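Run log, item B.
One chain of 115 residues. Sequence copied directly from the ordering sheet:
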Amino acid sequence: MGTFVYGSVPLEVHLDDRTLAHLQIVIVSKLRRRESFVFSWREDMSGAEGRVSVWIHPDCDLAFRFAGSRTPSVNRSWVAQLTELANSGSGLWIVPEPAAAGAGAGAGGDAPDAS
């Protein structure tokens, strides 16, 4: 289980390494272009109540802490979907991984709700 750590505030979200690796690609890509965006997730990844949203900007402190030493394979469809969300008005959410052509899908995540 990997960890995403945001800023000087002790704010962490624990994710599987596969999800975290895909989020890292999207987040780092946007920050390299000096783009800011909202990143949101459910406080309890099991789907219970509570959400957290943070404003990600090029000058914020981030850490991506992976539990394993191996880098997961990249599902380009998932990266594209997460990037599209990050570019939207509602911001980046963790959505389930779509099946990749010729590869098995990994663990899903937290989809936005309608509230």
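Observations after the first pass:
- Residues 17-32 form the longest helix (16 residues).
- The helical segments are 17-32, 76-86.
Flagged for discussion on Thursday.
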